[in-house]
Design brief:
Blueprint (H helix, E strand, L loop, with lengths): L1 H17 L5 H13 L1 H24 L1 H6 L1 H28 L10 H17 L3 H12 L7 H27 L5 H28 L1
Amino acid sequence: MIEAAQLFLITYFAAFAGVIPPGLVNMTVAKSCVEKGKKSGVYVALGASIIVFAQALVAILMAKYIFTHPYVQKMMLRAGLVVFVIMGIHFFVAARKNKAKEKVRTSKKSSAKSFLKGVMIASVNVFPIPYFVAISMAFSPNDDYGWPTIIAFSIAAALGTFTTLYIYVVSFLKIEKNTQAFSKYSNYFMAGLMALLILITIIRIFY
């Protein structure tokens, strides 16, 4: 139990810190929050956090295999590269249209769409898996975790991610008056972010 508690705290703060820098998931949360309101942002964060739970679970269960098979890591990165290119083009085209979206009321249907958006965005973001693999391997190179520890690790990753994303929701609500300006330039930011992720992914594939 002590090992599980220690791993929970370390993983929670690692996940919390890992989402702080502007990235694909947190900027999507911010964008949804500003354009559709707080509830939409929370649903995107919730969807993303559930995927992080699954990613952390996969990471700790397959830590030794992924860590010792660089080919598997490269295949995941190549798949992510294709997705980042497609999304980069999408955001750039949206930015060129230069039309700010009006804030809409949140309904059950739009909440479901926001939740699914969070699931989709987090699913294509493969970077957390190697991150959680490294964390889990640092604690137990022999990969001999029990199920209580495995579940605690995954829950901590999801909660740490959700905490940071919720802070993004609350923070971006303060710029509600600047919604039009944010909507105008956020697509350019997201397109630039995709370009950066493409560059990082290419470097990680070949080096």
